Amino acid sequence: MSWLIIFAIIVVNSMFVIAEVALLTSRQVRLERMVQNGSKGANIAISLTKTPERFLSVIQIGITLMNILLGLYSGATVGDTLVHWLDEVPSLQEYSYEISNGVMVLIITYITVLGEIIPKRIAMLSPEKLASILSYGMLFLMKIAAPLVNSLIFSTKLVMRILRVKETSEPITVEELKIFINQAEHSGMVDKTERDMIRRLVHLSDITVGAIMTPRSKIIYLNTKDSDEENLRKVSMYPFNFFPVIDGDSSNILGIVSVKTILNLKMQGKELLLRSRVRPALYMPENARLTKLIEILRAKQIRIAIVIDEYGGIEGLVTFNDIVKTFVGDIATMVDGSKPMLTGTSGGGYSVAGNVPVEEIMEVLGLHSLPGDEEEDYRTLASFIMKQLNKIPAKGESFIAMGWKFEVTNMDNFRVDKVLITPHEDG
Predict the structure, then answer these.
(1) pTM of the complete model beyond 0.70
(2) Of residues 114 and 76, which shows the higher confidence score?
(3) Are residues 158 and 178 in the same domain?
(4) pLDDT tens-digit profile of 317-364?
(5) 236 and which of 63, 291, 381, 414 could share a cystine (Cβ 3.0–4.6 Å)?
(6) Residue 195 and residue 223 share a domain
(7) Is residue 169 part of a domain?
(8) 93: which DSSP letter?
């Protein structure tokens, strides 16, 4: 019977150890997910972790009590048995109690340590599940031992105050967060792409608007001094949703106009009259934090901002797409996997989307330069097509250049949507 009591004490002690480790190492997110799936135990576990001093006090009381009982019963049971065995050896009979006590210390120490290590290893394998299971018992014990727990908490705070120890928790550093992210990747919780995105988000507050802007020399403007045809040509050439509007000079920005507005006017046969269509532009200093820009863009429901220097001069332009590119890459070239931007055709040709960067076209076709690229800053295949035809093309129009035939196979309103590029024998 005594051996059964010893075994029961070891089991109960193990439950306290498992509960302690499980509650301390459980992840809040996983517990909340279990609550959403209907786990009442997980909900109790979350409430327990909000007052760690209480459940830790109960656990410490339980572990201490079990160790005391283990010592008492082990001494009474195992000790008496050892003394009886030693008494049967005449040469050891005189020292039977001393030897028995020494052996008992070793046995109790071994059992106690083993009773701590194994439960901790078990708890670390599935902390959230075990925490949700054992939380019922912990809550019950906390209610029973409430007076003693309150006394312990009061005594602890009193001693801390006497020793002038302030209870403060250090915030997680960026380096520690990086370690957590790497651990999450190694455990399979996040992949490499997600890891890189999280790392960029961690440094979001360090990025300035000037670091991600399109420089002034590369901004594409619509000009009130230009004809409607010229402005429509620019709209067709570049895959942008908004354009800054200038009045003759790039230093004189009137505001921003949306492509949707321009296309609606064109379809209705109306003049563009850009000066009256613009909306006020948002101006941001180049040293402003990207977090501040995101906050303002969200509040004002706009997607573009003009970047200025300390003297108010135009430095560049930032769009919502630039912000997204900071974290996930250039989404302008991202398309559905079922609609590739560049596919091979029979006869060695290619069917290409109009917004494919010219650098990619040059690499595929084995070209080192494009006609007129010393005067023009081609960005996409559509801009190259528009410049070569010197107009907004129609479906079926084509031209020959550099040994290749470029044929417009589809138009999206006034934009070049698809182009068929095939080898030209006479090129």
Answers:
(1) no
(2) 114
(3) no
(4) 998 888 887 776 554 444 444 445 678 787 788 899 888 888 888 888
(5) 414
(6) no
(7) no
(8) G
